[in-house]
Amino acid sequence: MDVQALFKLSYGLYVISAHSGERDYGCIANTLQQVTAEPPRLSVALNRNSVTAKAILESGHFCGTVLTETADLKLIGTFGFQNSEAVDKFAAFSTGTDENGARYLTEHAAARYSCKVVDTLDLGTHLLIVGQVEEAETLSQEPVMTYDYYYRVVKGGTPPTAPSYRGNASAAPQPGKKKQWRCKICGYVYDGDPLPADFVCPICGKGADQFEPV
Ligand code: FE
C-alpha cells in the first residue's frame, strides 16, 4: 500500500474543547467535519486515550473552533502537545465560554460550533464522536488554517497519536544544510548548532535534553 497516497487528503486545524468537573479541556484535531446539514452535525475523531475525549463523553458536549493562519506554534504546542489535566491550556489566550461551559478561543479563531454528542463510534485507536450543532458563531474573517499550511508554512509536527500521523515528514532535515537538532517528542527541527542549553521546544514545550542531533 502506498501510505503516501493518504497524505493527499486535505484537512483543517481545530481546537476541540469541553468542560467536565472543574476543568477545561482542549486539544488540537484535524478531523472535524460537517457530516449532515439538516440537522447540522459535525464529527471529530479523537484518540481514545485523550483526556479531552474523556471530558466530551462525560459532559455530553464539545466545542469545535476553527483556527486561522495566525495561530502560531505556541498556541498549537499548548493545545496539541500539553495535557489538559496538567496545565490550563486556555490561560494565555483570549477565550469565551459556551452555554455548556466549554471554553473556546476568541483569538486565532475563525468560527466555533458548540455541539451536543449524539453518537460515538469506536474505531479502535480512536473514537469518532458525532455532535449536533446547538450554537455556531463566526469569530473572524482571517484565512483558516489548513493542515497543509501548518506543515508547509508553520512547519509544525504531529504527535504519533493523531489519526493522520505523517511521521513529521515536513519537519525532516534538509540535505546539505548545517547541523540540526530534532525534538524527540514532536519532531520539531531546530536549525543550527549548538542547540542552546536553555532551548525550549516551541511546539511541545520540552527542553533541550529531549533533542537529538540529525
Ligand atoms: Fe517538541
Spatial extent as radius of gyration:
17 Å
CATH architecture of the largest domain: Roll
How many helices? The count is 3
Name the structural class.
mainly beta
Name the CATH superfamily classification of the largest domain: Electron Transport, Fmn-binding Protein, Chain A
**Total strand count, please?**
12
The end-to-end distance, rounded to whole angstroms, is 28 Å
Spans where pLDDT lies below 50 across 5 or more residues:
none
The fraction of residues assigned to DSSP E strands is 35-45%
Mean pLDDT: 91
Largest pleated sheet:
7 strands, antiparallel
Structural summary, described in words:
The protein has 214 residues and is mainly β. The protein has 2 domains: 11-147, Pnp Oxidase, Chain A (Roll); 167-214, Rubrerythrin, domain 2. Helices cover 12% and strands 35% of the residues. It contains 3 helices and 12 strands; from the N terminus they run ββββαβαββββαβββ. It has helices spanning 51-59, 73-81, 147-154, and strands spanning 14-20, 23-29, 33-36, 41-47, 61-67, 95-97, 103-105, 109-122, 126-138, 180-183, 189-191, 211-213. The strands form 3 sheets. The protein has a 7-stranded antiparallel β-sheet. A 3-stranded antiparallel β-sheet has the order 11-10-12, with no helix packed on it. The longest helix has 9 residues, at 51-59. The model has no long low-confidence stretch (mean pLDDT 91). The structure holds fe (iii) ion (FE). Residues 183, 185-186, 188, 201, 203-204, 206 line the site of fe (iii) ion.
